[in-house]
Amino acid sequence: MSTPSRRWDPVRLLLGTYLFGDLTPTEVRPLAERLAVRRYRRGEYVTRAGDPSCALFIMVSGRVKEIIPTPEGEELLTELYTEGDVFGEPGLFSRDRTRVINIAATEASEVASLEREVLIEFLQRHPPAMLRMLQGLAEYVRAATHEMTNIAYRQIRERLALQLLELADIAPKPAPTLMLSQTTLAAMIGATRENVNRALAGLVADGHIRIQGRSLTILDPAGLRRLGARAVPLLPPPNQPPKTDRPRDGSSRASPRESPPGPG
Known about the structure:
The chain is an alpha+beta fold and 264 residues long.
């Protein structure tokens, strides 16, 4: 493992994650001392499908992506991770403990890793962190169900609106500007680049977004939310039982998609 290229505080890094945010600096310091950091060049893999799941990962700097290769040689992008994000949780607890997804750097990045045995021993001694881990795994399943429902029921235009809003959450305000290609957007919503191009043109015509080169600015987030709301809900209205003629999660999976908290 290499030394980070910039000064960083491993204790602050851990406390800034969803897993350890309920703990004190004193409690996480022994764990911080076990963190190892590695630099990755753009395009370099952090881990590949089939690799052993022997560590938890935390982003120190840069950005990495989850990708699933398609039979046609393309890639389906399922998630992006930036500074402070945690990934790799599900694989640590699977029966065969192997990765099922590829993780690659989209730019020069630094990723901290924590060995599985060290993490599990820590979780056993700190119930709040163990509870957070269970909550994270539960959210992974819920997010996967939600995204499968998006694919099954939402049109490309609606899925694109939701994806842009999700990306806007980490973009500067008040007019979030995103820097990404149409190919990347297509991979994130499980659509072709051509269909995404047409959907983007419609959003531009309606005044929801502005595109200049690879720069996409969201002008009307409320309009995008209204557009994304046009779908079958995941849950029934209050006091109304779910229909018995459809799976309770509402899903009828059409193809893989994008964004749970962390890969297996």
